[in-house]
Amino acid sequence: MTTIRTVSSLASVFSFLALLTSPGVVFANSSAPASQASELAPQAVHGMAMHGEPKYPKGFSHFDYINSEAPKGGALKMAIVANGFDSFNPFDIRGVAAAGISNYLYDTLLEYSADEPFSMYGLIAESLETPEDRSYVVFNLRKAARFQDGEPITAEDVKFSFQILTTKGHPFYRNYYADVSKVTVENDHRIRFDFKKTSNRELPLILGQIPILPAHYWEDREFGKNGLTPPVGSGAYRIGNFEAGRSIVYERLDDYWAKDLAVRKGRFNFDQIRYDYYTDDTVALEAFKAGSFDFRVETSAKNWATAYTGDKFDDGAIIKEAIEHHRPTGMQGFVFNTRKNVFKDPRVREALTYGFDFEWTNKNLFYGQYARTNSYFENSELAATGLPSGRELDILEKYRGQLDEDIFTKPFKAPTTDGKQGLRHNLRTAMGLLRSAGYEVRDGKMIHVETGKPLTFEILLFQKTFERVVLPFKNNLARLGIDVSVRLVDSNQYVQRVREFDYDMITQSIGQSDSPGNEQREYWHSSTVNANGSRNYAGVSDPVVDQLVSLVIQAPDRDELVQRTRALDRVLLNGYYVVPLWHLAKDRVAYWSHLKHPKTTPKNGTDLDNWWAEP
Questions:
Q1: 94 beta partners
Q2: Minimum mean pLDDT among 177-186, 194-203, 437-446, 529-538: which range?
Q3: What is the side-by-side strand order in the sheet with 237-243?
Q4: Distances from the Cα of 410 to the Cα of 287, 385, 407, angstroms
Q5: CA 20 to centroid of chain Cα atoms
Q6: Helical (H) or strand (E) element with 296
Q7: Which end of the chain is more exposed for a tag (fewer CB within 10 A), N or C?
Q8: How far, in Å, CA of 176 to CA of 376, rounded?
Q9: How far apart are CA 473 and CA 365, in angstroms?
Q10: Pairwise CA distance, residues 217 & 238, whole Å
Q11: pLDDT confidence band for 21 (50 / 70 / 90)
């Protein structure tokens, strides 16, 4: 499962590129034989969990992690470090959309709960119906639901949204909803989606994530060419003043139709939310401390350790807080583009992982704040650890002949320079792997014996501050005779090149939820290798990975999902598609003291949409 629209306003701050399965819902006739289940009319439910029962019962008043009495009012000023925006369409692959637009301008059929693995509750849809085999889903829309121009939200709008997003929107939508076979409008407030397969059990839930667009607005407009004309949305905010590429203001709707719903109580409290664009993060930090904006997520360990000091911090005007979370941290790493010949051989990729000295980097650059990442699902029960055993081993045994035997005999652990395993030892290991891949050193250069080509590649960056991490890695590889160049480009060029896979290596964060599902196709499936704009950054194309992705999507219950995900994690790690970097199980935030947040932080961490301004 992945969130289509931004679940938290932090998402655009953490990464502007970032665009969260199983029986378990109990129906009135849940004891009926499977052959009869799909023939019986399913019960309409207010919410649904991927596995088991949803936490919140029908008629619940608000989420537990919300202050339902939070006052409305005030303004939130935010900063984005990027080279501006040129679009108000966050669903099209062309252009760079304004920060926050998908979160604030558009509502969805269902709303995600931040303190459960994967549960959804009615927003635009008052209820949903799905049989036990989850072969289809029906959404019953609220008759009170309205677009921002006052027009009612109907089933035709839902059908239009699905069709326009899967035909003209970002390729992600086509992959995410690939198993939908038919869409039927049954009446103005009832719509049905039928599925090709009954094994993809998260489809009823992820269809609830569709952002709902007004068909009447787009009737005489071209979807991909709206530019900076403010569109009509379905969410809690509309676009106010903006300066092209430099700033944008969102204004809260006083007559927002959903403001009193349980899934909206205590959320979206600011009257205005303003984003200003900065091209330099150092300038943005100083602007924050001067009061030019209110809230900042700090991604630099050095800044966190040294820059948040002074009178404003001493007297409590600015609060510095590390808020613990329990969400999977995913994988941040140097990503190999295996579409390039230089990285086709996994032995070469593995060798290069030995050139990164995490311990030196963490101590000298990051003040010891980070932990090494050893899983694509780090900080969760989904991560593969030790040797495969039990059900996970059973899953992998089916593919033993297609897998490296190390998967069964050696636990994965990213190279370390702690203790006796120093950098010199690691470089010797790397040299051995390169020799086995057909390379040797000639005149100080790593050369492929058969082709005579040197081992050389380029690392593409858009953040100058990351050069201090990349350059020591480059220097370590130079000791092996490997020539690495570093190219720094602006954020817009970076986005375009990443969309077209025009790079050898990039640094990328691959986020994960606590309930992986359809989005795993977008990350790892061979069908996305050549789909421009997909998130298969590494170019993974492996039949075993394809089958494991399908198994994850089809997991019948939580226990099986965990075991299948661990198997997928282990195979990906053994493929050496990235050089794993680091993670932090805390949100490092600083904010001016007039901002307040609920006492309870959900497992997913900080969400500014739950905060408010002190009157």
A1: none
A2: 194-203
A3: 75-81, 272-278, 247-252, 237-243
A4: 49, 10, 6
A5: 7
A6: strand 295-297
A7: C
A8: 20
A9: 13
A10: 15
A11: very low
Q: How far apart are the first and last CA of the chain?
A: 38
Which of 133, 140, 141 minimizes the C-alpha distance to 194?
133
Whether the Cβ atoms of residue 376 and residue 331 lie closer than 8 Å to each other: yes
Helix axis angle, 346-353 to 423-436, nearest 10°: 170
Taking alpha carbons only, the member of 109, 113, 2 closest to residue 60 is: 113
The residues near 528 (Cβ < 8 Å, ≥ 6 apart) are: 171, 175, 521, 522, 534, 535, 536
Please enumerate in sequence order all residues whose Cβ is within 8 A of that of 478, keeping only pairs 6 or more positions apart, or say none: 484
At 135 the three-state DSSP class reads coil
Tokens of 574: 């053994």
Write out the DSSP string of 69-128: TPPP--EEEEEEESS---BS-TTSSSS-BPTTHHHHH--BSEEE-TTSSSEEEESSEEEE
- Round to whole Å and give the CA distance between 105 and 249: 11
Using alpha carbons, list the distances in angstroms from residue 60 to 53, 142, 144, 151, 261: 14, 17, 19, 28, 10
Write out the two tokens for 276: 């200003």
CA atoms within 13 A on the CB side of 102: 21
Q: Phi first, then psi: what are they for 609, rounded to 5°? A: -70, -10
Judged by DSSP in three states, 396 sits in helix
CA distance 514 to 516: 6
**pLDDT for the residue numbered 39:** 55
The residue-averaged pLDDT of 539-547 equals: 98
Q: How far apart are CA 525 and CA 540, in angstroms?
A: 7
Q: What does the alpha-carbon distance between residue 309 and residue 312 come to, in Å, rounded to a whole number? A: 8
Three-class SS state of 575: coil
Structure tokens at 148: 């921002």
581, 358 Cβ separation under 8 angstroms: yes
- Tell whether the model's pLDDT for residue 448 goes beyond 60: yes
Which residue type does 264 have? R
Query: Distance (Å, rounded) from C-alpha 113 to C-alpha 120?
Result: 6
**Residue 582 CA: distances (Å) to CA of 366, 425, 459:** 10, 21, 18
Give the CA diameter of the chain: 76
How many residues in the chain?
A: 615
Structure tokens at 174: 């086509």
Residue 419 identity? G
DSSP annotation string for 485-515: EEEE--HHHHHHHHHTT--SEEEEEE---SS
Q: How confident is the model at residue 198 (pLDDT cuts 50, 70, 90)?
A: low
Parallel/antiparallel/unpaired status of strands 180-187 and 190-195 = antiparallel
Angle between helices 558-574 and 390-397 (to 10 degrees): 60
Q: Is the distance from CB of 553 to CB of 581 less than 8 angstroms?
A: no
**Separation CA 432–CA 455 (nearest Å):** 15
* Cα distances (Å, whole numbers) of residue 313 to 226, 307, 320, 321: 44, 11, 7, 11
How many angstroms separate the CA atoms of 615 and 611, rounded? 13
Q: Which DSSP helix (H) or strand (E) runs through 241?
A: strand 237-243
Cα–Cα distance for residue pair 254/238, rounded to 1 Å: 11
**Cβ of 193: how many Cβ atoms within 10 Å?**
23
Cα–Cα distance, 96 to 12 (Å, whole number): 12
Q: Which of 104, 63, 100, 123 is nearest to 236 (CA)?
A: 104
